[in-house]
Every structure is written in C-alpha cells, then in structure tokens.
Amino acid sequence: MRLKLLGALGMAVFLAACSDDTNKGATTGTGAAAQSTGVTPGSEADLVANVGDRVFFELNKNNLSSEAQATLDRQAAWLAKYPQVTVQLAGNCDDRGTEEYNIALGERRANAARDYLVAKGVAASRITTISYGKDRPTATGDNEEAWAQNRNSITSVR
Amino acid sequence: MRPSDLPLISDVEASLLATHFGRRALLGAGAVAAGVLAMPLSALAQAAPGAPGDAEITVDQARTAPIPIVIPVLGGDAGQLVSSVISGDLGNCGLFAPINGALPVGVPDFGTYKSLGARALVSGTATTGAGGLRVEFRLWDVLTGQQIQGTAYTAGAGDARKIAHIIADVIYERLLGEKGYFNSRIAYIARSGPRTHQTTRLAIMDQDGANSHYLSGGQWLTLTPRFSPVSDQIAFMSYANNRPRVYVLNLATGRQQLLGDFDGISFAPRFAPDGHTVIMSVTRGGGSDIYSVDLASRGKRQLTSSGAIDTSPCYSPDGSQIVFNSDRGGTPQLYIMSAGGGGAKRISYGNGIYGSPVWSPRGDLIAFTRIANGSFSLGVMVPDGTGERILTQGFTVDTATFCPNGRVLAFCRQTAAGAGGAGFSSSIGTIDITGFHERSIPAAGMASDPAWSPLNG
Where is the stretch described as Disordered (chain A) (predicted)? Predict the structure, then answer.
C-alpha cells in the first residue's frame, strides 16, 4: 500500500513538474480530484492520482477485500462521471504459481473486478479484460511485500 | 589401410540405419534423410574373429555407472568439431564417460584401450570437400575387438554438428539399446530487459544450446511454445495486438496462423500425438475450459466446462487420455480425463498445489510442477497417481518438457530477485528422470518455456 501511494504521489509530482499548456488550462473536478490540479480530468493520470487504478488480492485468491471494493466504488463513480471513457482491467499474479495457471488466475482477478464494476452500473461494453499472468510484475523483488503488490487487477484508460 | 580407403558395401549394420532413419528411408545400401546420406562401411579385419555375432555391448549397469568410451579427435578438417559435439552429447547425458585418446589408425590397439577401462571406441574422419561434408564413423567394442557400427555420411558443408548428433544417437542406441535424442531441438522463450516489462522472443536452438536463433521479433509478450510431435510446427501463445491467443508457426514456411476463434484468452496449447489437433485452454468468466481444435478444419470441440480453471492439458502418447490442471476441487491439482472429455479423476495428493503436467512419450510417467511452502519442485508420478518422486527443487522450476525418448526433462529454472530485481535469472536446465545428471543448457541471456522437438528428420 505504501508503494502504491508513493507511486501515485510520484506521478502527481511528475505531472505537476512537467505540466504543459493542456494541463494548465484544464479544470479539475470536485472532491478528491482537487488534490492533483495538473491532471486532465477523465484521463489515465486522473484515474491513477485521484481514484486508484488497482486492487490487490490474497495469494491464489480473487476475493475483493473491503479496501478493493472501496477502490472499485471510486472507479465506478469516476466512470459514471466520464461516460466516454473505456477501460481495460489487467489481472496479474505473483510468481508463486505456474506460468499457465497464472494466466487463468490473472483473468479471474480481472473478471472479479469487472463484475463488481458492472454491478455498480458500469456498462460491460466499456470494459475489456486481459491477463498477464506472472509476466508483468509491478514490483521486481521476490518477497511478501512485492508479491502482494503483484497480485492485482490494474484499471487503465483505453 | 585407413578407414577412408575402404569400399562402401552393404553390411548388416544397415539395419541400424533403417531403424534410425525410419525403415522407409533406407534406399539400397544407403539412407537419405534431410540432405544427409548414410552408407554402411564394411567391417575392418576382426581382431577377435570368434566373437559373438551380436556386437552390442550389454550395459545394464550403465544406469548407475557411465560407460567409458574413447572419443578421439577424428581426422580431417572437421574432425575436431564432430568429435567435440559427440563427446558433449554423450558426456552431458550422464550415461557415458568420454575418454580422450589418440586417433587409432586401421584396426585399433584394443589392449591399450582396455587398460584405460574403455568399453567402446570411436574412430573415423570428417572432411569438407567440393562435394560437401563426408564423415566416416566406426564404433568398436573394446572388449571383443569387434566393429559394432561403420557408417559413412555425406551432407552439406555446414552440417557437421548435425552429423555429429546423428552419430551420438547411433552410439547411444547401439550401446544402450534405446533410441537417442541428440539430433533434436528445443524451442524456448528468450527474455531480456527489465523484469517489469521483459521483452520475450520465440527462439529455437539445438538440444545442446548451439545454433540458437530468434523466431519472433519481441514486440509482443510471447509464451509457452510447444512442438508438434510429427511436423515442423510450433504452437505458442502471443499477445499480438493486445489479444492473447494461441498461434501455430510453420517452421518450414515461416507462416504463422491464429488457431481457433474464441472470445476469451486462449493459452496453454499442446499438440495431439498425431499432430492433427491442438488442445488448449480458453478463459470464460472466472475460469477456463479445455478445447481441442482441428488443424485442418479449424473445427473446435469443448472438452471441459467445470467453471473452474481447467488448464495445461496434455495428451497421453496413445492419444486416449488427457492430463490437466484444475482448481475445481478448491486448489490447483492434476486430473486425468478421457480424450473426448469426461470422467475426470484427480491423481495428485501430495502436500501443496500442482500444475504444468506433461505426459512422457513412453507413457509410463507424468512430470509436473509442485509448489509447497513457497518453493517449487519438479517431479514425476505414474499416471494413476502413485510413485511420486521429486527430481529437483528451486525457487521456481516449471514448464517441464520430455526429450524424444522420455529419459530426460528440460525445464525452466528461475532464481529469486532481491530489492530492485537484482538476482533474478531464468535459464533452461535438464535432468534425467532418475533425478541425476542435472545441468544447465548454455544460452545467451535469459531463457524460459523450453519445448523439446521430436527427433529431427
């Protein structure tokens, strides 16, 4: 969790530092979005900085924790606000499973997040899913903290 | 008299060539396969004329003690290369102990080799000329002084390694009584770049790591190549155009085709023993189903619909059954069902979770990955689930593949990464099904997902 927040903060700082004319003129949304003024509303950066782009899973599981549900609630609200946005949910796994099983497990995780968003009113046609199994880890180390980071479903703007 | 001066005549050893190249390929006194012509060489004068007619060495004890075999540097400009490849094949498989020696002229001095402890001896020449490469090879039984095999091969000038692998297979078969596997290749995934977004390329090499080259460009994530057991085709998974699907690549034509039209992700391909169909997994909802796809008609047939993850399917060598990985019982385990689907029966009951099953071409064993307490093991079990043996362990050992005769497994071994990703490595190892002779295949850079080819034509 700490890593994720640092990543989000880093992104916001980065964007603020290189903010160009497009971002300068952009109006920010209300509430949480106000904390990152250099971000285009409805953009990938907005999603990452102000909503939270990913949810995490337990080992070999696809259950959505209350924290994951809260993140997806924010994503559903954000998607309702920007109805033109379509997203991809990419499921990922730690490297403690086999190559092939993890491809299916990653898809199962993306699917769990998709089903939740659809239940919250997001049109299924706006969501695609993909799984990278254990081949696109976010954290490069091999320890419990890194594995927890890598068991996720990451939402990105298409 | 030097061996190269001998006339080429038909001899009883031609029967071995017939076996080696397939009986239909034997043409008169010679055999042709993929540009290689093999002709029997007559036996030199026998040092022990009274020896038994069957010169094959009986080496039951070779299972535990490697056979000492003298492999001198052969004569001719390609002799050094041919000898080193033969020696590498036989030494690396663990069943032979190559001894360097002087090249014998004519009939070898068997007394000297006997005193070295040698059981067999190789002699011959390898010469490149205007007509290409000519390799004359003889195999001798040191104890009886008999020539076991004499063959002259002619091939293209660049085929020295190939001929050497063929000779190593002949030696393996004559001395062990079963077909070798050295004239074969391994398809694999070459990996480079940072671990968070590694570049993956489909690649192929000889089984000893030589002649490695890429078959794809690395733009898209590419995984799990699988060789056809009967043709020069590889099924694999590619994320081309951000749509992960199973493709088939024809190595002869370079043509690559999408296999099957599915809504979900298709992955985990595996050819049927006859090469006519490919089975694979296709995601649906929170699980994946197993399908077979006919290569000619592209007709597809759904074999499982459990709602759970059913994946990593692999046919038995007789094509009647399929072993696969499923978490339908709660955790990933191994199951066997009929080739038409149905009748699934769990076979794995050890501690931990199981995956990546692969059926031996001999039919008698299923190799698998087992994960317990955060550590991976590679093992084999009898198809009814009994006799489980762990062959090797590590941080990650996965994607086992059998060599053509079923005696050796190649697999991917990965090491754990420390902070920042340093320390991560990915390589291809091999291990005998007895659990001995583990070694690493040299490859430039990181490699994973090995897939052993059938014997080359």
Answer: 135-158
Per-residue pLDDT tens digits for A56-108: 999 888 999 999 999 999 999 999 999 999 999 999 999 999 999 999 999 99
Q: Would you say residue B11 has pLDDT above 80? A: no
Q: Give the model confidence (pLDDT) of B327-345 as tens digits.
A: 999 999 999 999 999 999 9
Strands B96-99 and B67-70: parallel
3-state SS, residue A35: helix
Q: Are residues B198 and B155 in the same domain?
A: no
Domain of residue B194: give its range: 185-452
Contact residues, chain B, for A97 at CB < 8 Å: 332, 353, 355, 371
For B91, the enclosing helix (H) or strand (E) is helix B79-92
Same structural domain for residues B289 and B168?
A: no
Q: Which of A96, A131, A140 sits opposite B371 (nearest CB)?
A: A96
Indicate if B235 and B302 belong to the same structural domain.
Answer: yes
Task: Indicate the number of domains in chain B.
Answer: 2
B149 and B232 housed in the same domain? no
Q: Residue B457 domain-assigned?
A: no
Tell me, rounded to whole angstroms, the distance of Cα B260 from its chain centroid: 28
B316 neighbors B352 (Cβ within 8 angstroms): no
Q: Over the range B163-185, which residues count as b (16 or more CB within 10 Å of their CB) and which as e?
A: bbbbbbbbbbbbbbeebbbbbbb
Q: How confident is the model at residue B347 (pLDDT cuts 50, 70, 90)?
A: very high
* Residue of B198, B246, B266, B267 to mutate for A, most A C-beta atoms under 10 A: B267
B443 and B321 inside one domain: yes
Contact: B449, A99; criterion CB under 8 Å: yes
Query: For residues B334 and B327, is the Cβ–Cβ distance under 8 A?
Result: no
Q: Which helix (H) or strand (E) holds A135?
A: none
A45 or B443: which leads in pLDDT: A45
* B215 and B107 together in one domain: no
**One domain for residues B316 and B374:** yes
The DSSP element (H or E) to which B323 belongs, if any, is: strand B321-326
Is A98 close to B418, i.e. CB distance below 8 A? no
Chain B contacts in chain A segment 59-88 (CB below 8 A): 60, 62
Chain B contact for A98 (CB, 8 A cutoff)? yes
Judge whether residue A16 has pLDDT over 90: no
- From the list A91, A93, A49, A55, the residue with the least C-alpha distance to A73 is A55
**Torsion angles phi and psi, residue A31, rounded to 5:** 65, -130
CATH number, domain with residue B29: 3.40.50.10070
Run of H or E including B241: none
Q: Which of A115-124, B113-122, B205-214, B379-388 has the lowest mean pLDDT?
A: B113-122
Instruction: Please report the pLDDT score of residue B32 as a whole number.
Output: 52
Same domain, B149 and B208: no
pTM for this predicted structure: 0.86
Q: Inter-chain contact B355–A95, Cβ cutoff 8 Å?
A: no
Give dist(CA B243, CA A127) in Å, integer.
14
Between chains, do A98 and B355 touch, taking CB under 8 Å as contact? yes
Look up the CATH number of the domain holding residue B280.
2.120.10.30
Among B128, B147, B176, which residue terminates a domain? Answer: B176
Domain boundary among B135, B150, B176: B176
Tell me the CATH architecture of domain A2-157: 2-Layer Sandwich (3.30)
Average pLDDT, chain B: 88
- From B224, B264, B417, residue closest to A142, measured CB to CB: B417
Asked if A97's CB is within 8 angstroms of B265's CB, the reply is no
